[in-house]
Amino acid sequence: MSPKLKRSLICWGLLSPIVVVILFPYLTMLSTALTAKSEIFVFEKSWFPKVPTLENFAMVWTERGFGRALANSLYISIGATLLSVIVAVPAAYAMSRLHFKGRNAYRIYLLITQMISPIVLIIGLFRLFAFLGMVNSMNALIAAQSAFFMAFAIWMTASYFDTVPKELEEAAWLDGAGKFTAFMRVFLPLCLPGIAVTALFTFINSWNEYALALTLLRDNASHTVPVAIAFLTGTLYEIEWNLIMAATFMATIPVAIIFASIQRYLIRGLSLGGVK
Amino acid sequence: MSSINVMDVAKFYGSQQVLFDVNVSIEHGEFVVLVGPSGCGKSTLLRMIAGLESVSGGEILLGDELINDVSPQKRDVAMVFQTYALYPHMTVEENILFALKMRNQSPQRCEVALKEVSEILGLGDLLDRYPKQLSGGQRQRVAMGRAIVRNPQAFLFDEPLSNLDAKLRSHMRTEIRGLHQRLGTTSVYVTHDQVEAMTMADRIVVMNGGRIEQIGTPIELYDNPANKFVAGFLGSPTMNFVDGELRVDGNDAIFVSHQEKKFQVGAHANMGDLDKRRATIGIRPQSITLTPVDSQDDELVGHVRVVEQTGSETISVVDFLDSEIIVQSPRRQLLHPDQAVRVEFDMAAAHMFDAQNGLRLN
Ligand SMILES: Nc1ncnc2c1ncn2[C@@H]1O[C@H](COP(=O)(O)OP(=O)(O)OP(=O)(O)O)[C@@H](O)[C@H]1O
Ligand SMILES: [Mg+2]
């Protein structure tokens, strides 16, 4: 056995308990989602459904209006991601490249905002949006979520921007590009990986966000995915695990798709040999 | 193509001053090399000419135009960076043509320019590659191509060869010089390598600690350094220095080292006031001869410490007058460590510097 093979076997051996811990809930979720309601509470519990069925998905989708929740969540998460990124990119550029008075204070301020839990602010926010007449507005939720995710997005993009050599922009200026053109044609394309990662994180944060969504969107029709899933448990006499798991499974799909489509930016090398 | 005039320029970073009263006037078509030790402000000065650093005091003129506050975009100078700064997401062709695109040149004009540049620099096969697919020397060449394609008023180089290996460096040195002869564009070239400075420059500007020490042609600076710093900076191996005192008596001047060894100094007029002056003589490794001797009691005996044979010449380090003296003899001299040698200075070629302020006395 070659030493390399040995090493990877040892690594896998050590990692496998963790893999089990990570995959177990996922598999349980999948198997429960595929199990008919009648089969769930039988005495002889088996790991896998005897007759796999898609009826739970159909049920969640049609009778419980989960499709609506998915659409709401997509709208809100994409909106919050776009808004965060659109504001974070210029803000991060300023933080990474421009020398202005109070730059350090600004950095620290952003960090401090992250120390306050959104829960603490929720009542205040609710009153604010109520005052603005924006309760039940998905755009209000987009604004509120972006405000919370922005600081993190700015920090993350700024630290990526810091790794892009300044000479590249300087070379573009000397080549006759204005500040904005140099930013768009030279700087931004190189920062796509960093921006993609930030967008992904923001999207996932927003997708999973519960408290704000629950507070600001009072209407059944405007429930987001996490809220809708939470409400699935709410029947009085039974907890419909099969439906919850089917919904949860569907909720993981958009994130997986986005992750897969963004992946090539994540692994693309940073400066790609432009310097040295 | 333009002249560049730097007048009384100062640079502050916060309260720290890094350039003091810098005056250089670079003529149209000239190749000027800024040289000096690390941190002396060469890059800062170059970047101020490029417009990448603000000017804290004084004036910079490109041709007749005052460019202190002109943005780099409008200056029409091209710069080759130490790290090349090629755009990683563009092919070689796009890199080279970027400047022309920014100036809205027609596609026909771009094509002609690209052809010309790739011919001059031998980039023909590389045009479709990305920078990461190029070797160091090729990247260097693309960076040059990006600079020459638009025919700027001036080229600015910031240590463009320092990432290359020795052989490629000397090759590119010749190539850049050749390019300058062909294009005749005013060039400012920053390096801390005195060999590059000596071999490439029309004129050298020697800087130290944010100030200009001396400006002149390589030969002028080599033969008549204004002070000890310039003398020690240029020439390889570096000049040897011996501390001591001058004794002048009429037309007869001698230099007495701290060890009371006496050297006859080529006297000249008005040396009278130099009597008893503390001084340093500087003598190049090429102006010293070593002769093996048997006896230890000769006045001028030193002991060989290290001998390096390059094949054609011999470089020896000799313990002499309590210091290490480097000697380069133009032929193969068979010396061995610990050998006693008689050390003779060619005093006609020696320089004499004031021990206090370093200025040249002879
Ligand atoms: N952004 C800056 N802020 C503060 N000080 C700076 C800054 N840039 C450069 N300096 C200082 O200015 C001085 C000159 O720097 P510069 O880069 O011009 O040196 P250099 O001669 O190019 O050296 P090297 O050969 O190492 O490149 C240095 O003492 C450096 O510490
Ligand atoms: Mg430098």
Give the C-level CATH assignment of the domain at 67-235 and 251-269 in chain A.
Answer: Mainly Alpha
**CATH homologous superfamily grouping of the domain at 67-235 and 251-269 in chain A:** MetI-like
Q: What's the helix count of chain A?
A: 12
Specify the helix fraction band of chain A. Answer: over 70%
Low-confidence stretches of chain B: none
Radius of gyration of chain A: 23 Å
The figure for the number of domains of chain B is 2
Which helices and strands appear, and what pairs or packs with what?
The complex is a heterodimer of chains A (276) and B (362).
Chain A lengths: L2 H31 L3 H4 L14 H8 L3 H32 L5 H11 L4 H14 L6 H24 L4 H9 L4 H30 L2 H6 L8 H8 L8 H27 L9
Helix pairs in contact in A: 1-12, 3-12, 4-7, 4-9, 4-11, 5-7, 7-9, 8-9, 9-12, 11-12
Chain B lengths: L3 E10 L2 E11 L4 E5 L6 H9 L6 E6 L2 E2 L5 H4 L1 E4 L11 H11 L4 H15 L14 H13 L5 E5 L7 H18 L2 E6 L2 H7 L2 E6 L2 E6 L1 H6 L4 H6 L6 E10 L2 E6 L4 E4 L12 E6 L4 E5 L8 E9 L4 E7 L2 E7 L10 E6 L5 E4 L8
Parallel strand pairs in B: 3-8, 3-9, 6-7, 7-8
Antiparallel strand pairs in B: 1-2, 1-4, 4-5, 9-10, 11-12, 11-14, 12-13, 14-20, 15-19, 16-17, 16-19, 17-18
Helix pairs in contact in B: 3-5
The structure holds adenosine-5'-triphosphate (ATP) and magnesium ion.
Written description of the protein model:
The complex is a heterodimer of chains A (276) and B (362). Chain A has helices at residues 3-33, 37-40, 55-62, 66-97, 103-113, 118-131, 138-161, 166-174, 179-208, 211-216, 225-232, 241-267. The radius of gyration of chain A is 23 Å and the shape is globular. Chain A is built from twelve helices and no strands. The longest helix of chain A has 32 residues, at 66-97. Chain A has a domain at 67-235 and 251-269: MetI-like fold. Mean pLDDT of chain A is 86; it is low at 269-276. In chain A, helix 1 (3-33) runs antiparallel to helix 12, helix 7 crosses helix 9 (179-208) and helix 8 packs antiparallel against helix 9 (179-208). By secondary structure, chain B is α+β, with helices and mostly antiparallel strands. Chain B has two domains: 4-233, P-loop containing nucleotide triphosphate hydrolases (Rossmann fold), CATH 3.40.50; 240-354, OB fold (Dihydrolipoamide Acetyltransferase, E2P), CATH 2.40.50.140. Helix content of chain B is 25%, strand content 35%. Chain B contains nine helices and 20 strands. Chain B has helices spanning 42-50, 72-75, 92-102, 107-121, 136-148, 166-183, 194-200, 218-223, 228-233, and strands at 4-13, 16-26, 31-35, 57-62, 65-66, 77-80, 154-158, 186-191, 203-208, 211-216, 240-249, 252-257, 262-265, 278-283, 288-292, 301-309, 314-320, 323-329, 340-345, 351-354. In chain B, the strands form four sheets. In chain B, strands 6-7-8-3-9-10 form a six-stranded mixed beta sheet, sandwiched between helices. In chain B, helix 3 (92-102) packs parallel to helix 5 (136-148). The longest helix of chain B is centred in the middle third of the chain and has 18 residues, at 166-183. The relative contact order of chain B is 0.12. The structure holds adenosine-5'-triphosphate (ATP) and magnesium ion (MG). Magnesium ion is lined by residues 42-43 of chain B.
